[in-house]
Protein 1
Amino acid sequence: MGVSPFIGIAITIALISLFFALYPFTFRLPASPSPSSLRLFTVEELAIYNGTDNGLPIFLGILGSVFDVTKGKSHYGKGGGYNHFAGRDASRAFISGNFTGDGLTDSLVGLSSTEVKSIVEWRDFYIRTYIPVGKLVGRYYDSEGNPTKYLKGVEAKAARGAQLIEKQKKEEAKVPGCNSKWSQDEGSEVWCDNGYTARSETTRNSIDRENEQTLCML
Ligand SMILES: *[C@@H]1O[C@H](CO)[C@@H](O)[C@H](O)[C@H]1NC(C)=O
Ligand SMILES: *[C@@H]1O[C@H](CO)[C@@H](O)[C@H](O)[C@H]1NC(C)=O
């Protein structure tokens, strides 16, 4: 005894409608569909996402790029060790470790090229690890979301920092018995092969800047 094919069609239609009715709830992505990657924040708007309100995502700014770091809530949320970074751009503090008062600034004035390079590497870390949600209007992005001269200057300085580190590595490699490496956590480190003794020597270059170098002597 066959069931009327119309019932089958009616059920199918009902299921399809139900699917679309529930679709936004079932398949809605956490916080950030792609168009919001163009979202522009003011300092005040970003400050709301500081991890205080559990119903809101946590946002962090670095070099004017804003990331959703909610999945790192234990670090960036209330009471977390990196909570100072939430709801603001404290780019400088990534290298200074100064989380008090004016230490929490996005100004990089006076930092060396290798320090600026480290901050750019931190931004790369956030790009790899978290979800970009937009740009902070101010020092690094203008009101249209375009990079400012300041950001271009920072990126150029970071590139010089990278060249400097390469050059230092090459020079140190020329010294017999001497080894060197550079890491973000420990900076540059020099050590001597067995049989060589490390000696520190201060040299002066043409513009009268002191430069300390480790030599390995037999
Ligand atoms: C932190 O965010 C909450 C809302 O999420 C806001 O009321 C508060 O003012 C923010 N704190 C600062 C220091 O901006
Ligand atoms: C942090 O920065 C503030 C403002 O620049 C300064 O007054 C303070 O001494 C700094 N603290 C440390 C530990 O460097």
Note: The pocket of 2-acetamido-2-deoxy-beta-D-glucopyranose (ligand 2) is lined by residues 98, 100-103 (CB under 6 Å).
Protein 2
Amino acid sequence: MKAQFRNDTPIDFDVVQSVIQKMNLPCIGKASIREIKRIIDLIEKETGQKFIRMEMGIPGLPPPGIGTEAEIKALRKGVASIYPDIDGTSELKTEISRFVKNFLDVDVDAESCIPTVGSMQGSFAAFLTLARLDEQRDTTLFIDPGFPVHKQQHKVLGQKFESFDVYDYRGEKLRDKLESYFSTGKIHSVLYSNPNNPSWICFTEEELQIIGELANKYNVVICEDLAYFGMDFRNDYSKPGVPPYQPSVAKYTDNYILFISSSKVFSYAGQRIGMMVISNKLFAQRSANLLKYYSSDVFGRAMIFGTVYALSSGTAHSAQYALAAMLKAANDGTYNFLKDVKIYAEKANIMKEVFLKNGFHIVYDKDIDRPVADGFYFTIAYPGFTGEQLIEELFYYGVSAIALSITGSTRTEGLRACVSLVHPSQFPDLSVRLNKFSEHHAVSGNPCLTV
Ligand SMILES: Cc1ncc(COP(=O)(O)O)c(C=O)c1O
């Protein structure tokens, strides 16, 4: 930043600089989400000023009363003292199976629907088990950009992964790109999120069909992370048993695992409960290689009585009652679970406008031929900055986000912005701060563009 602007930043320049120095990080822009959170906490504490906080994907809404009340009732009944079955209570398993039928139009037996300690445990358990299915296949493929913790899980497990940024491989181009990995014979599974964290792109039916066809051809398991289930608000996916349904690869292959988090769509992040839905075919699949690690050669049994048992012996009992109640209400059509979270799209729409008005642009801007939906996240960049530089510079203007580079994105100029924690009362502040930013960083031929 140019010295002449140091007395004119919305947040005190010296405080920001001293906190950054204290954190002693080699590069602020490469910091993890939690490190960025810590820096902003410290700056806010020291200056008493509130940031426009867009770094962390925390649900910014209260949990639905249906869930809380069911959980309290279950606790009062004494479920806390009883070990739940590893693969979940029968009520919950039935409601997950109904939910998948009602909102995805996909048939999965209740047996194959397993609650997990958040979707994160589901993916951890899946990676662990999938890598043992076939000795020849030892690698996961990530369709990026993605949620960095999935890669962290691989590092912790000592497992191999490959990844590519889908930005340049949308539509039919995806086929050759996937085939180039699948044809090596090393890939056991693919993971992507849809809608995508961080870019909020949504795969089209054509793309899901390509993924499904290749999964069948090469016998690769598709791990579809539906953490933001139904939150592409360009379509109304909220009516049970009525099209349109949340698009899914499950329409095109029977070789899949779906991860449905309750954190965002039911604002139930704190209770750490998610759903792992294994296709009936994969659940029943046998593999002699599994016997090296498990007492059963059946994938679903190895998953439940081997992996999930070893990790946590199931999921908190009371939270299962909460989730079952919320799902039942959604399945019965008495609770529109997407109505509550639509506010995220409304906020994104306004916030994107403010960024665009101040010289920023959207990085992942299209699903093939239509603008990406408004939702939980959006991606932004500003001319002349890399994402890592931009993060640090925006701190002085009271705005925080994370660099796309930590998500496997090749768009190194970009940031991910999360709308959930930004209160509408902060929109005027956002506008004033970005205005100041663009005044200090005027784009064409401006000498202050030195960062
Ligand atoms: C794409 C994606 N997958 C999984 C998760 C984690 O979900 P859970 O809270 O259910 O573990 C998140 C949370 O931000 C996410 O964005």
Note: The first strand starts at residue 52 and ends at 53.
Protein 3
Amino acid sequence: MAKITDLDKSEKKKKNSSSSSKKKSLKEAIEEDQNEDNDKVDTTHLYADNLSGDIYTETNANPKAKVHSTEWMKILHGDPVEINPSLGSGMKIMTVSEWTSRWKQNDRFPDCLACGSTNTKEHHFTQTWCRGKKKFESETICMDCHMWSWRSYVDPDFLTPEEFDKIRWEKMVKENEKAREIARAKKN
Ligand SMILES: [Zn+2]
């Protein structure tokens, strides 16, 4: 008997919850949707998750990535550099902090590899995905010691789409050759 009562209760509970959900106001429903969005997995740093090898690192006095390297030398020499087009036009002598003001920290790799400071800004970032395999590059400048931290990674079995196609093509050619050889052998 007890079991049946329990069942009854749970049945009633289900009914209650379903009816109450119907009564939800539009505002509540919207809020719930937003909460669901918040629960979604953050994919920003997915490129650096579950790596199957080590990240290659370097610290340099000058940027390893070519982008900004000419400007960096000008900054060091106190020569004017081009003003960001969104801020104005022309050339200006800038401090390092002025020049890097629009760059953001990479919160996945915030630390300077030279001094350990997290007062860093990223000037170069690329990520490439091919059939679930990944590759990335990141370079940051430290606002405290002005050293550049380079990080790069590639999955051991990473292939670019071009490399993948090349291998598939070569395999097909070989298979065709084999098929022709077999056909020739049969004729003889
Ligand atoms: Zn540093």
Note: Strands lie at 56-60, 81-82, 91-92, 120-130, 133-142, 148-154.
